[in-house]
# Entry
Amino acid sequence: MIKNFTLLTLSLLFFQIANAQNNTPDTGARYVTINGRSIRVYATMGPEFRNGGNLGFKNFLAQNVIIPDSAKLKKVVGKVVANFMIEKDGSLSEIKILESPDTSLSNAVIDAIKTSPPWRPGMQNGRQVRAQYNVALKFDLSK
# Structure
C-alpha cells in the first residue's frame, strides 16, 4: 500500500513538473556547448538604421553635419565620438559627445543626429529594447 502511494505521488510530481515546463514562455534562451560546458545564450539583435545600417547612418551624418565656419577657420583635425540611446520606438535620446577636438564640431554632430529618422530598435527575447549606440566621425579640415 505504501509503495502504491509513493508511486502515485511521484507520478503526480513528474506530471506537474512536465506541465510547468510546457507552460513557461519561450524566452529566446538557447543552450550551446563550448569546450564541454553548456552555456545559456539569448537571441539578440542590435538596433539598425533603417536606411542602410551602419554605413547608411554614416552617410546620413556626412550629408547632414553642417561644418561650422569656426571649425573651418581653425582647420580642425580629429575624431568626434557620439553616444546615444535608441528607444523601443526607434527614436534617439540622450545624445552625448564622448570625444571631440572642437566644441562647435560637437554641436554640429549633435544637431545632425537629432534629425535622424527612427531606427529599427534592438530586440532581445522577441521584445523591443533600448540600446546604446556609438558612432565615430573623422574630420580633417586642414585642407
